[in-house]
Specification:
globular; 42% helix; alpha/beta; 450 residues; Rossmann fold; binds pyridoxal-5'-phosphate; 2 domains; 19 helices; single chain; 15 strands
């Protein structure tokens, strides 16, 4: 009999609830603080930005939250997503390790981001909101939110980091096709944008600046709210459909993971895969090592400081206790645009502080080498972000080759690279560089912590 490589769930096995890891942790994460009073933020502080349902999910201590049927209907366009065993990659590496990947590139925009974009748009529409604003880097999040807004009849306005807006026209066209309006950031449309342009007329932007612009717009218009694609508790909550499905698929495979590996930008695909497995680990039902991988050029977990910082450049957001490189930090323009955020999710940061997960950083050349090796063996070209996780999987698989250990590795292949091929072009042409982030640069940036 042919060896099985693909584990699929029936539509009827689509999860009915999201999993909240907080009540299972030995202690809860520190709360967000109001930037003015430095007191914990209350629901009223967040009401100009988010609908009540999402504010409630942000602070809930319930272990499970039901997924509305209207959201599950849209999820069914691509969920449950497949789990693959990477048998061809294992063979190429000559490793006794068994490598599995949960593939989120099957979504309408090619990444895991719609898992949260859809419920965020749904709850806003249900509460009568007319327009959502957001930021986007390379455009993965912006296109996910544009798709989700189209599903529920919401307007969508996106501030896209100028460098990507100019260099990557296809994501912008995708957002516009879904009906969204896209502005390059910094823009002249907001006070935050104008302030940056006055100082740096040629600014190529950053996620932190784009967040300031989108938040400022939402706070000023009563029928408008803001949506964030990562970092916050409710975003990670929505992403747990990834791990819940993967648990069922591992039952089908008759296997148990010894190691989970995920790439971390703001932490949402990693948390989405890892939290249901962390629940099993904390309950003593399995004992996987859980490992986060970040780019060497933007190493918040491995070299950042665990401190309260702003989520944006202008200082409009609540203060979040997280591993941060400083809210002014502008990382090198590496190709993994989704991993270029100065902070890490407070929940992932807290879990790292508790010693429940490990972290490492890898330079982009090693990551793209892994991406090419994966593409040539498995036939899927990974987005630049998950090549970080794949590089760490390959490191581990090669260690297993040395020791003969039959380790079971699971990773989230959180997106494909069909709109990021110029990054592969740079790698293949040999023009990709790994710039070292110096201690001096990092210290300078950390000096701005509030
Ligand atoms: C946005 C994005 C990321 C980074 O965000 P997380 O919240 O850390 O998951 C990683 N991979 C892809 C494909 C993305 O689009």
């Amino acid at each position: 009999m042919a060896e099985q490589t693909k584990y699929v769930l029936d539509e009827s096995e689509l999860p009915t609830r999201w999993y909240n890891v907080i009540p299972d942790l030995p202690e809860p994460p520190p709360p967000p603080l109001h930037p003015g009073t430095r007191e914990p933020v209350g629901p009223d502080d967040l009401a100009p930005l988010f609908p009540q349902a999402l504010i409630a999910q942000e602070v809930t201590t319930d272990r499970y939250v039901d997924i509305p049927e209207e959201v599950r209907e849209v999820y069914r366009l691509w969920r449950p997503s497949p789990l693959f065993r990477a048998r061809r990659l294992e063979k190429v590496l000559g490793t006794p390790a068994r490598i599995y990947y949960k593939y989120e590139g099957v979504s309408p925009v090619g990444s895991h981001k719609p898992n949260t974009a859809v419920p965020q748009a749904f709850y806003n529409a249900a509460e009568g909101v007319k327009r959502l604003t957001t930021e986007t880097g390379a455009g993965q999040w912006g296109s996910a939110l544009a798709f989700a807004c189209a599903q529920y009849g919401l307007q969508c306005e996106v501030w896209q980091v100028r460098a990507s807006y100019d260099q990557k026209p296809y994501r912008k066209l995708m957002m516009e096709t879904f009906g969204a309006t896209v502005h390059p950031s910094p823009s002249e449309l907001t006070e935050s944008g104008r302030a940056i342009l006055k100082q740096h007329p040629d600014s190529t932007g950053s996620l932190g600046i784009a967040i300031s612009e989108a938040v400022e717009q939402a706070a000023q218009a009563p029928d408008t709210r803001y949506a964030l694609g990562s970092v916050l508790n409710h975003v990670l909550l929505h992403q747990t459909v990834i791990g819940e499905e993967a648990l069922k698929q591992f039952e089908l495979a008759g296997d148990t993971p010894d190691l989970l590996v995920g790439c971390t930008g703001g932490g949402s695909n990693f948390g989405g895969l890892a939290f249901p497995f962390l629940r099993e680990k904390l309950a003593g039902r399995m004992d996987p090592v859980i490992r986060a991988v970040e780019p060497a050029a933007c190493p918040s977990l491995t070299r950042g400081k665990y401190a309260y910082d702003f989520g944006d450049t202008a200082g409009l957001t609540p203060l979040l206790k997280m591993h941060t490189l400083g809210h002014d930090f502008i990382p090198d323009p590496i190709h993994a645009g989704g991993l270029r955020y100065h902070g890490m999710s407070p929940l992932i940061s807290h879990i790292h502080e508790l010693g429940l997960i490990e972290a490492l950083a890898i330079g982009q050349q090693e990551c793209f080498a892994a991406g090419v090796q994966f593409a040539r063996s498995e036939g899927i070209i990974p987005a630049p972000e998950p090549t970080h996780a794949l590089a760490a999987c390959i490191q581990e698989a090669l260690r297993c080759k040395e020791t003969g250990e039959e380790k079971v590795i699971l990773t989230a292949l959180c997106g494909h690279a069909h709109l990021d091929l110029p990054a592969y072009g740079a790698y293949l042409a040999g023009t990709m560089v790994d710039d070292e982030l110096s201690d001096a640069t990092l210290e300078e940036s950390l000096a701005t912590l509030p």
